[in-house]
Amino acid sequence: MGSTGTFDGLPPLFEHCIDDYRPMKVICIGAGISGILTAIRFPQKIQNLTLTVYDKNADVGGTWFENRYPGVRCDIPSHSYQYTFENNNQWSEYYSTGSEIQAYLQRTARKYGAYRYMKFNHTLKGATWKADEGKWHVTLEDTTTGTTFVDTCDIYLSATGILNKWQWPTIEGLKDFKGKLVHSANWEEDTPLKDKDVALIGAGSSGIQILPTIQPIAKRVDHYMSGKTWISPIGFGSQELKLRGATGNFKHSEEELEKWRKDPKEYLAYRHHIEAMVNEASLITLFGTPSQKEFQIINREAMAKKLEKKPEIMAALEPAFPPGCRRLTPGPGYLEALLEDNVEFINTKIKKIVPEGIETVDGKLRKVDTIICATGFDTTLRQPLPIIGEDGVSLDDVWNPTPECYFGIFPPKMPNHMRFLGPNGGPGTGSLIHLVECAAEYMIKVVQKLQREYIKSIVISPRANKQFSGHLDKYFTKTIYTQPCKSWMKRGKEDGRVVTLWSGSCIHATVAFENPRWEDFNYDLMPEIVGNEYSWLGNGHTLAQHEERVTTEYLDKVNIPPVINPEEHTPGGVAHSVTVPGLL
């Protein structure tokens, strides 16, 4: 022993308690559903953590902060579109409006203190991995002051969602229009609609919601739709509509809301009922099965019946691909709006936009006051910002030509970088928020491992990434998603690799996320354990022992096994009468 009371020649962590975890700094970009969750769960479960969540907007909410177009609402039942730990038993409607969802997210963020970790009006400008430091250097702009700065972290999270870069359509003369031109994803409240001649371009999820909302107030609506799409009478959780005799949507009665306020357990049972319905939707994604064929017949018959007064619209809309190959949108009121006298459905392609309106390829000019472009987002997954990983490689180059992301979380060659809803990390069916929660738990385990075992960096191995991608490709061959349809799931292509969805149901993904396969990763170690990677075991004690605190908390966390023979009750113990199926 040396003169200072320490042991000479022993590893740096010899005096270290095993649970004295090293400090970790995490930066999360995005304060939508995933970013709010990060600011709630990471501080709850990770010791010695410094966390900052940056967002370009002025508040939380992500897509629900940004999307404010007329008729915006979720096409997932509200009771399935909420955090598992924060039940809102007062949703006013079955499919809630965007403003009600935004209020829920703000309230949840306030309740659990998420705002403490957030900095708004900050735009990501780039991020670079510094291997020698084991840190990311993240460049940001404070848009309120115009200043640019660099923040550093051990872990860089992306929580910006799948589709977050809206884009104008590529139409000649778009900017020559002299009236009001607006994009659905960048809605302006002063957009003139009442008693106006309006052109609505596009019939994706936004366009389908906008049309029935503006049709009653506009003088005329020219609806341009050159593609094909299914407008399903059966959306996610729509069995509940049938049970209640409702069409499209319904409001919860005050009596029902009062019942749920008084009895949270009854509301939880109702949530079980709704989520079970939502989870069932995965059965129609397997191409050629009886369920999938029946679903297609139901969709066709329902559309044809609603459009029987204008069969030419049915002929123009009906796709050759199965329902669900493109993102399926129920669209309450959309088909009905197409039949109204002040709506003209136009499937002739647009030639150009002129100062006074839109000219189609047949030479016809239709003059309008307002043009709404519901034309969606950039679906290429190209990265406009420099995200620089191992050996100076950019994420944009890594994802060219094929975006890959192990478990939808780890991009190749990007150490200590994890993504919510990355390529092949999104649900095709089921509860998106539940899946995001499970991904967060996976990420927390990653951070805890690096922290506990003094690991500097973690990156997916080329072998594991290749085999995971190979599994994805084989799985999707049996699904509706690889049928020929132009879809953002395939980066806007008709035929191509499915790059956004998980290879299975949402429930399947949650099971897969439970136990990370640590053997699939490559690691770099912190200097403290170089030479002996078990040095993190330290001095053989815990912090509780070192600080003379309670060391018996495990007695309060016992998972009691089922009792098979109650007659063998131990004196002084607790009798548990648990019946085990098959052992009566």
From TrEMBL:
Gene3D superfamilies xref list: FAD/NAD(P)-binding domain
Pfam families xref list: FMO-like
UniProt GO molecular function: flavin adenine dinucleotide binding; N,N-dimethylaniline monooxygenase activity; NADP binding
SUPFAM superfamilies xref list: FAD/NAD(P)-binding domain
Family annotation (InterPro entries): FAD-bind_Monooxygenase_sf, FAD/NAD-bd_sf, Flavin_mOase-like
Alphabetized UniProt keyword annotations: FAD, Flavoprotein, Monooxygenase, Oxidoreductase
Family classification: Belongs to the FAD-binding monooxygenase family.
Name assigned to this protein: Cyclohexanone monooxygenase
Top-level taxonomy: Eukaryota, Fungi, Dikarya, Ascomycota, Pezizomycotina
